[in-house]
Structures
1.
Amino acid sequence: MTEEKKPEERKKRRTATEAASKVGPMVKAALKENLRAKEEGRPIAYSFIFSGYDEIIRAMDIVPAWTENYAGVCGVKRDAQRFLEKAESENFSRSLCTYALCGLGFDSWREELGEMPPDPPWGGQARPTVMLGSGQIICDPRYKWYQAVQHYMPDVPVYVGGLPYPPYEDDYDYRDVQDYYVKYIVEELRDLVAFLEKHTDRKMDWDRLAEAVDISDRTWNMISEAYDLRKAVPCPMGTGDAMNTMVPMTFMMGTQEAYDFFKDLYDELKIKIANKEGVIPDEKYRLLWGGGLPSWFALTDFNYFNSKGAVFPAEVTYRLVEPVYELDLPKVSDPLEHLAWRWVKYWSYRHDKARKRPGSNPDVERLIEYIEDYKIDGVVMHEAFSCRSWHPGLIWQLNQLKRVYRDIPSLILESDIVDISSYNEADTRARIDAFIDTLEAVKSQ
Amino acid sequence: MSAENSTGGLDIVERYYQGYGSRARELKKQGKQIMGYLCAFTPVEIITAAGFVPFRIKGDVNEPITKADTEMETIVCPLVRSWFDMSLKGKYEFLDGIVIPHACDSISTTYNVWKNTLNLPYSHLINMPHSTDEPSLKFYKALLNTFRTSLSKFTSKEISDQSINQAIRLYNQNRAKVRELYELRKTSPPLISGAEVAKLLIVSVSIPVEEANQLIDSVIKEVKQRGAVPAAKPARIMVVGAEVDDVTFIDLIEDSGAWVVADDLCPGAREFFDDVDVTADPIDGIVERYLRKIKCGRTFREKKGDYEDYLEERFGHIGRFIKDFGVDGVVLYIYKYCDPYGFEVPAMKSYIESVGAPVLYLEDEYSMSTIGRLRTRIQAFLELIGSK
Amino acid sequence: MKSQYFAGVDIGSTMTKVVIMDQATITSVIGPTGPEHRKLANRVMEEALAKANLSFDEITYVVATGYGRINVPFADKQITEISCHARGVGHLLPAARTVIDIGGQDSKGIKLKDGRAVDFVMNDKCAAGTGRFLEVTAEELGVSLEDMGRLSLEAKNRVEISNTCTVFAAQEVVARLSEGVALPDILAGLHEAIATRIYGMVRRLKIEREVALTGGGAKNIGLVKAMEAKLGFPALLPPEPLLTGAIGAALLGKDIVREAAEKGETLKVSERRLTEASIFT
């Protein structure tokens, strides 16, 4: 007869900053808070990050349940498989977004049992009052996932609102269309408020919304300035930490807490720079994480890079802000209109720059900008098999970067966000080793 | 099932199917301009009104995907990858441009790759919203006007309301003819096979709409003249899925002893059963058809009423087809990496089963390597429904 | 009343099985399917006929099933393993509502109602949920396939194999062995991994008791125990798990003959030839 399995022996992940190390407990506390909110009868909204409604939810005192986060937690704790399998048993394809599969598996199981699945990671995810999707360009799961999980919770209303941004095109400039984009977004956000007022007992506090928007503007600036400090040599904070600090950026945007977090981070980085304290003592290679969501179960890979003398001063993933003062936003009194302009201008930020370089586009420009500003030696991309929002186009971006800028060493890792069965540690480390060799060879030329 | 006098429409269909793109190539030599496009959500009326021949980019199940992998990720829907592979391999060298709608992730997030590797003189992404509320309709209208302006600039010719209305008329005729064709599938046994219909529809979106209309007419005429067919009475199957632009799968079902008599596919009923309403501003009618009328997983419909009503709203048309076409079983045929339909499966399956039809759910990869596996499953399914 | 004989020929990717029955099974032959046997299904048939002391002409109806069913030119009908396993289990274990067949290169789940298949799932693409997984890892570990199951039951601390890909799992397993992990613990982990894979697939059918296990995998005591652990209750096993498909095929042949007689229809039989299947058919 088989006995209990041996506990997994894994090295604990190390973060470079105090700020990043605070995040784990923050997430745990937030999940606990959600469960308490549920017990107290406060309205809970399943939400997607970076969907334009952070400030709206905060202003209405609605508790967000970030379902992507919960799937990430299951991934980090390496306890996502059973939920992925449950989703598969419901006939969801394993090739779908594994955040969604994890959530669908968890929720369908919870609904079946009438209580949390056994031993749920960090207490589990409570049944929501409403579910807020988004019909943006960012991804299909944002309007399919909650519709699909509604099959198991038919009484929970689902909202899907449009939040598009102008694509980078040759036959017109974004300024030709920005007005109707903004108009549409404002209407959708207004509808969202109406939806929330209808399906929860909350009413919008417009003054509070204006405040929250103001805080988030300032937080955008603070994040940008803090992250800009990572240009220093040696680099005081890497992408490994940024995968933690994305938490207040995406789960707490619009709150004073988020602003304070990044102010603290800024101060901390300033001190490290003054003391010439880098992520690692002997910094040999500076890398750009050029795209792709991380493998949440393999964040220790960043420590592995560190052990080879490589740091990541910059990343594209989860750097979801730009300095608001550089976005050229019109002055408007309606906070919803401000949010709409901020959204459109954020996505169009590098359009003008891209037009000045033949063959370039905003994504490639961003890579070039970071390579130059952060003194980057090589670019790493991660292809997560289940995500068709952030990942198609990365190969082309790398190819184009080399075509229009310079032939910079690059590495493409392949795995997934949450599904650990796609990950082979030995293979990944071998690829990293080979990449380091390439970087060394280029450096010594 | 072979037609008696095969010098007619079905022969032409076969020729254009095997040599996909040959007619467009001919037309290009005659000085016509060809506009490539993806998916049933591209407003072909506007493209036709602008003076182009819309050409639906198609994949090939028999052609292993090779070149595409150098620029496009393998986690993209295999259909899109095959389309891209064929394009990179020069099969559609006659294109003057490409129009891509924001249908789903695989199609829209690869737009940059399409645009920047094919290097066609014209490319445009129609950033179609996913919702069907009033603001979304207005937004979509604005997008279509941007598209119209862009096309006019490219051709240096204004696109008049009149020309759009004319195109709408032709396409509505086209859709009516397809519906007439489908009536021939209702008999027992159907007068026209699923494979014949599939090839005809696939071909029809690769040639000018006037020619497609003539072709459908001649096929209907030819088929109606067929003599009685021996009634072996195998099962009547409906195929439901996203896009099936290759006849291989339909052949597989029909070779296993069943008729494919109905579908919810593109090209298929989904693409041809709804017309553009005649409206004062023709763009309004186009907006309504593409955003609201077409029932596809990529379009989010709001739930009004209870959950049963919601399923009926989303999938009721499938129930009606099952009834009207005497369907014995439904095959849900969805490619791996398909987001809009992958998420639909449990709800769709439960709805179809609730109206009394057995369902076979198949996930496939758009390649010949899976044929043996598919054949076993289809055969098992047919045995299952046969033993009722 | 003259006895009628029915034959079921099940050509699996690993094993070929022939059953001849009248009211009950008279004889059965099980042999390995090499590339040759697929072409030489008739040889196995001849062996079975010899054992039963019958001539080929005395067989009323032959049904072929399995992966190689198209290579049986003397068969009167080809029916998929889904229908055949359902019919076989319905006959042998009437209490079963779900069948889990674990083969050498594929695995299946079948839902039964009134002794017939009403739904099914299959895995014939990924080796990780099949006997192949054990074959590959047995080779890596230097253990005989026959001992794998028994040894796995001696585990004290079952190891978790995180890789679901057979190739990577084999690597992982070798690594564990060299770390000094006990062999039974590793084997238990492997069996658990397969059971997880198979269970995950069959769950799509909404499993109903009783559950019958068939196929080569059902002869592996370690795998049977691992499956029962997943199910949470004991499974039923037919007397010879490898024969359910062939028995079912023969029985379906019997059903076809009886239906034809009841309807007064002439039976469609194949042009009987006990010769090699040509490569070009």
2.
Amino acid sequence: MTDSDDKHVGYARQKARNVLQEYFLKNPPELLPIPVREIAKFHGFEIYELKTMNKYQRAIKQDVPAEGRKLIGLNANYHRHNQRFSIGHELGHHFLGHPPEEDCDEDQIKLFNSEADKFSAELLMPLDMLKKKLVELKDISRIAKAFDVSEQALWIKISEQKLLSML
Amino acid sequence: MLKGKLKSLEAFLLDRIFLRSQAEVQVEYNTKKSELVKVLQEDLEREKKLEEPASLNSFGDYLRLFLEHNGMTLSNAASDYGIDKQTLVSIIDNRVLLTVLEPVVLARLSMDVHLHLEPAIILIEKSLKLYALDPSSKGAMARYSSKEGMDTKDSSMKSGVAELMMKAAERKPFNLQQQIVSNGELKKFLDEFRQAFSSL
């Protein structure tokens, strides 16, 4: 990973922390699991479950600026954990100011999607809360349940944040 | 279509097995096998959608899936169903108001593509709503699960955005949305469609 990549990831995570801070300031108490649907609604997003998307697409975000509406569609065939992560991912695109896909080449789409994933992972599993739970529970399955995320997403977060030694 | 794929896999094995090293054959066999699995999965996904026509976005979506599932080209369909190719394309892309077609033509087409009366009516109504919304995937972003997601993003994005806009309009109509067909016109068209459907 280059310095530039590190900065992008750091920025995405910091943005996620700011979004959480703003939400919990107005909607205490700060409890787990992170209410990602409510956070999206708090920021004016409407969320719908969609049945017609193919299995390779998990979610879409479409803004309708002329109507002042922001829409997120979730592939209804995916598990709740996946849908929660997808909401975080689409919020990531929004808060990180990513341009629409038609203005991007394939490499940019990959980069922006990766940033949105980092944003989502931090939103759903904030680093400080994750460290506390690792000390308290020491068990992947119980920690995943506490955050209402998949064990796979949790493993990736733990590994990326170099927290394996805390287990 | 699947039979053809299986046959090509079999032919490939017979053709290659004596000419190449085992490793080479294995690599190509695995590639062909994963292509076949992908085709099978897509076929199953289409079949599942065709079994629940009312959950699709439009009459055109159903027609497109039906033709794909049955390996029919537009030219085949045009000659089999007695509708010109351009009209079929416009129906598939939802670029034509279905109420401008003769109810009997649409009823015959519905029967030809194995669509029952009630789902056909639901799809006609959805097509009209979608036509009025004129959704565009411009400005949309998506989350993909794999490289295939990027490869198929255009078609999936289009249907995803169409469904998203329709559901959003159901919750709260868009200000810019226009009523193109009046309730009276729609009722008259559907009555004639029902009548034509029952008489065929």
